[in-house]
Fold this protein.
Amino acid sequence: MSHTIQDKRPSVADPHGSLSSARMPRWAPLAIAAGSAVLGCLIGMVGGLDSKIQWGLLAALIFVGGTYLITAKVEGSRQGKNQVATSLVWVCFLLAVVPLLSLAWTTLSKGSGVVDGYFLSHSMSGLLDTDEGGGVYHALLGTIEQVAIAAVIATPIGLLTAVYLVEYGRGKLSRAVTFFVDVMTGIPSIVAGLFILSTWNLMLGFGVSGFAGALALSILMMPVVVRSTEEMLKLVPNELREASLALGVPQWRTILKVVLPTAIGGITTGVMLAIARITGETAPVLLLVFGTKLINTNPFEGAQSSLPLYVFEQYSVGTDASVARAWGAALVLIAFVMILNLVARGIARWKAPKTGR
């Protein structure tokens, strides 16, 4: 009769010899975070730190250190290092989200009391900046027209440039285009405004107008569109291109019918990011559009206003009424950008290729 010999050696993964190693409970990270927040506040109060930001940073340091020590004690040093990396990711996420939420809450709380139907449908015509009342209609209209014109100019140029770089670009010309796109990405907005001022206004003799501001905004928008579209086109699998070309489809039609529809979601998001960037620009508008209290529906002639310029002007006055109007205009600007993003997501989902059957 044979006897089965059982191996009594301990498991390599478990130094204590048990078949299952100890694991932290699911609620442990939340408990450590709560304890770290309490300790950070206590240390801040005892140490006489007045800034709540310092309390938060102390709590973050305690959270990262405490996570490593507790996890390493229970699960081992390897899992402890893994939890430290996870904790750092969460801390960085909170550091990015907290200022954003604070900004959104401050704008909403201070601007919601001003924004109403009257504020959105009236301008500052006939009113001094120190007077009560008035609205943002002229600035909202100017922003919509200027951003729309800039998008019409920059989007096709940016898309075609990105298509050239990804699908056709080779050699010195492609490298030169890439270099100048990188340079344009980092130029300050005031430089774009000065360029249009020196060429369109001074050399060619055109006056201030919303179109001049849109030209400067399109310069700022183009490199963002090029870069985002270029990265999205690179993500399209080459197998799709090869399959289309193997069927005898011309390259231009392959790009139009296969490549662009596949990347339309990312392209639309990139365009919206570019629009969001130029929507809040003030310096080019101040130089080229000049600002006005009147409603000017013609972007090709005469001064116009815009939401960023309106916020700057009203906040500079410093009275209670003007500051309230500035916060209201800032809230309208944020809502405008959010609506554009929602529309872009809807278009991207509508135009994206269907994956289901």
